[in-house]
Predict the 3D structure of the following.
Amino acid sequence: MQKHDVLVVGGGLAGAHAARAAHLAGADVAIVSKLSPLRSHSVAAAGGINAALAEGDTWEGHAFDTIKGSDYLADQDSVEILTREAPNVIIEMDHLGTPFSRDEQGKLFNRPFGGMRQARAFFAGDRTGLSLMQTSWEQLVKEGITLYEEWAATRLIVEDGRFSGLVAYKVADGTLDEFQAKAAVICTGPGGQMYLKSTNAVTCTGDGLAMAFRAGCALKDMEFVQFHPTSLHGPNILITEAARGEGGILKNAKGERFMERYSPKMLDLAPRDIVSRSIQTEANEGRAYPGGYVDLDLTHLGEAKIKERLPEVYQFSMEFAGVNPGEKPIPIEPAQHYIMGGIATNNDGATSIPGIYAAGECACVSLHGANRLGGNALLECIVFGKRAGEAAAAFAKGTSQVAGGADVLAAEDRRVESLVKSDGREIVEGLRQELKRVMWDKVGIYRNEADMSAAVGAVRDLRRRYENVRVGAPGRTFNYSLLEAMELRNLLDLSEPIALGALLRRESRGAHSRTDFLARDDPSWLKHTLAWWRGEKIEITYEPVRITQWEPKERTY
Amino acid sequence: MGAEGADVLVATIKVYRYEPERDEKAHYDTWEFDVKPGQTVLDLLHEIHYFHDPTLSFRRSCRSAICGSCGMTLNGRTGLSCNTQAQPLIDRDGSLVVEPMKNMPVLKDLVVDMSGFWKDVYDIRPYLQPAPTAPKGPYVVPKQRMEPMKIAQDCIMCGSCLSECTSREANPDYLGPAALAKAFRFVADARDAATAERLRQYSEPNGIWDCDTCLYCNEVCPMHVKPMDAIMHMREMANDLGIESQGSKHAIAFYETILESGKLNEFKVAMKSLGLGGLALQAGITAKVVLRGKQPEIRKKKIEGYADVKKLYKLVEERKKRKGEKK
């Protein structure tokens, strides 16, 4: 058994800042992470991090754009915290060593991003996530923070309604152990692997989300799933929004700049939900290339500028599509990219269970409401990772360790043992592919009652079939098939709240776009969805959106 | 895109297997596959793992060459499985052989123990050490002054360079290219205030002077980081700052003795870099060299074309002078 004051689950950008903040506040902190921290998906974030730092820009401007982008579902007091804190984040990360791109005079560059009326995305080439993650990881090394790497947390332990620790699985040798702590911050990032087309890493299986859900935390607004307009056709590797920020233009198979029809003012830099739907409409109406993709044209920028400002776009395009973007357009299609919903938290990252905190993509404060704007996710990880870490450390200071957990460890041991030995007839990857297909086809970019209702049924059926799953690998050393079986359970447990929340929400708002309810319906639906795990059943409740100074208006671009 | 099936290649894929719970020795498993254009090595490994042999273990995550998880040896050369197209390799070599990275112990199949890799990175103090007072806003550093870092800052810590490092193969204590590239990232950073202190640390044995300049690290890096260039820059900087070490003395002695005749004077180089005492410690090697009749002549005659050597030295000296004036 291991013992610490605060456990941070996940070592990505939010986790690193939660751990650092709790450590600087005097707590004994350890990170428990399925991956080595630098392997976290934060490194894949490319284009930028927003802040009203340029002359003439204001935090209110950043806040308004974020709230409008969210289709007014974001909690406005939370967005105020995010946007007020943003300039300090850029300065602090620069002071810690992030190599932000600069001009000849030494001032930080910024560039326009979708849904922002002003250029306020700061960046390090198009490897902003990698650069911020490196800097944050460097600080973990500097502070000597304890790291349990390649330990996958499988279960949160809650005794009498309070957090007491967690059980984690050591990938290297297949053993389970109990970690006792007074508080935990869940920072496990994305969970989009239930979608057929996704920019998420293969390991983004929503482990923390599912674990917190099963432990009794509410999941908020899970039906709001972002589809990024520009993923590479085929492998669905992310082509950053910065490509359009630098002047890239979307064209259909007839060579038309189709965004002129859908967003006459913001064109290719309209928010992601709008651009994704536009591409999908072009495909549905037969104006895309066979296979449903369109062109992202950067040729007018020239190879030199692409290489300087968008080196990763250049590399991806060459390596995965065999296309030199200086000479030919890049074939792109929408793919699942981000889940706006997550573990419901307050502004300090606290969940409904004392001692459990969450931050980053797996959390829902809510900062992004029904649609996240590019450049706000990295910012969220740092601002709210830090807040959650500080709050968890303060909580740990004022409380004593809750005992118990040995029986939970034994139960997890039995579960894993029976999973590894099971000779059921369902193959992990078979079920996973079926799930991905169902979610993509029926709870995707465009949604309707019949599809979603079928999806809820199909997901329930897949959950039943999971009881018969076969791992097929008996060993305990780096048994990734066993890990994938555990990950699949998490994806299955998360898919139902997504499908059910979407089915019940009879309106179109942000990324939730229904062909049978086309309009946003504020009188009935200006509210957050909360999903609660009740064993076999999921209960849905609602709570109001917190509005401060921006009254909901029609959202046009 | 061609018609379905038109460009499919039937190929043999050989994968290194080692299961410590069962095997005393490693072996290879072989699969026959239809390999489609555009398929990466990772795609093929996934196909094996998901549908043919769930016991096959390998690390991977982002599948887009940014997380650094999937370094492995592909037909003899280390790279990422996710951004390596399978067909060109098979076209070139007739088949595909996938093995774990080198210079790191194998834990299972394609999974290696990277703890030694990380330890080296920790050892170089991989974090900014700025001056005690920071500006109120971001540091003002012109774009050009950020440029030198670029050859090192994109490192994703995949271990490919270490896997191919011949100096590391010969000397397990050598810090290795990834750690030293990371070191350079801070040395080159205008915001870092510990440059001299860092260079002194990196000049110690097993540091920058232990690279044997084989260039493999530069060649295999999937992010186009140039660890060897970074190491050479640090050598130059250490010399400019007058940081003396056995390595720097060796390099300077090399430079000076070649100027004398155009030929390396092994005896003088050894004298200058090791000193008499050090030389005595090397007596064993010297004896072996002599026994095999390979002892170098002590006095060197000027080589043919010595005038060209002089010209080269003149160019180098001029360049050094210009660099000094710029500063």
Q: What stands out?
A: Chain A touches chain B through 63 residues (CB under 8 Å). The longest helix of chain A spans residues 480-504.
